[in-house]
Write a structure and sequence with these properties.
Blueprint lengths: L16 E5 L6 H9 L3 E5 L7 H17 L3 E5 L3 E5 L16
Length: 100
């Protein structure tokens, strides 16, 4: 399916959803830069899960950056972490369909 037809054209958005792959800790400064810029960041941590110590340090740094901007952080499934700026709250309850 080509989703291009749904893309919005127009002015610059105030908040951008960025996607990052945390394969090494070298990308942390770029992810933190996006957090401090007020953007939403969806981080794929699958590749870094092989090094638990590096993963724990990285998540700790991201949590500190989120605290600095009064944002929120949550895991999604096993391999994704979402980071949102101040003014956005992550609801940890899943949306489920009603019984018909």
């Amino acid at each position: 399916m080509d989703l291009g037809q749904f893309e919005e054209k127009g002015g610059s958005p105030e908040i951008v959803l960025r996607v990052a792959e945390l394969g090494t800790t070298e990308i942390l400064p770029e992810i933190k830069k996006e957090i401090y810029a007020g953007n939403i960041v969806l981080v794929d941590i699958a590749r870094l899960k092989r090094d638990q110590a590096a993963l724990d340090r990285s998540i700790g740094e991201l949590k500190k950056a989120i605290e600095d901007v009064s944002g929120d952080i949550a895991g999604i499934g096993d391999d994704l972490v979402v980071l949102v700026p101040s003014g956005i709250k992550i609801d940890r309850e899943k949306v489920v369909g009603g019984k018909d």
